[in-house]
Amino acid sequence: MEIRTLKNTAPSQLVACFNEAFSDYFVPVSATEEAMQNRWRASRVDFNLSVGAFENDKLVAFIFTGVGELNGHKTAYNAGTGVIPAFRGRKLVSELYHFAIPLFKNAGITQCTLEVITQNEKAIKAYRNVGFEIGRTLHCYQGEIQPAISKIPFEIKRSKEIDFEELKPLQPFVFAWDFMNDGIKAANNYECWQLSDNNQLKAYLLLNPATGYIAQLGFDKTSPENYGLKLLQEVARMQRSFKINNVDAHSPETIKALSDAGLVHFISQYEMRKMLT
């Protein structure tokens, strides 16, 4: 068994190992190379700091590492960890992190973070053994939204240009890694929908129109008008099926807007963190 970085590993080998590792996951996964390339871009994956375990030169376990800034710390984000079934039970996740952490420190990284499904007790135990601690809980939603019955009396703007400074006052919480502003910029496949009332921005969402994936939803929570719900219903004029992941459990207004729109909470994740200083 050899542990080394993934900088010289072919993408096809990475994707093959990923699919084998997640073949029996809580949420079935079967990714194409194109989809994984998009995910790695959004997660800002650095393969010089991503690591894998190899048996006879076959990749059998991996950690993809995204690198960026989070809460003032240079951060190593776990953009995916997997071990193929035949090699589980060997504490390879711990071995991979023991190899990777000195690399992280040499790169000036001061914290590690990840998300893990709350039901995945084995993974949570493995991360705790490495020194990760559970932080906030994040909810995931999916389903169909019924469109507004009639045209809503607000101005709706749809654009591929995203002005994050304009959106900042409406951002409801610190978004999870892939959906932070830097992740949206790196992915470069989202469009911005905005709802304005009397020329004032009251709600926005960032949508991948090809997949129905909502990366961010923000709206004015001080008004009795449920602007978030109304924007969701307006976007549903164009398509019906949507998914939004990693909504902070302590954002009741966002959760209510999603539930009122008809989206269903289907799974939750813990955000975990390990400090390196």
Automatic annotation (TrEMBL):
Residues 1-155 form the N-acetyltransferase domain. SUPFAM superfamilies: Acyl-CoA N-acyltransferases (Nat). CDD domains: NAT_SF. It comes from the Bacteria. Gene3D superfamilies: 3.40.630.30. This is GNAT family N-acetyltransferase. It comes from Adhaeribacter terrigena. The lineage of its organism: Bacteria, Pseudomonadati, Bacteroidota, Cytophagia, Cytophagales.
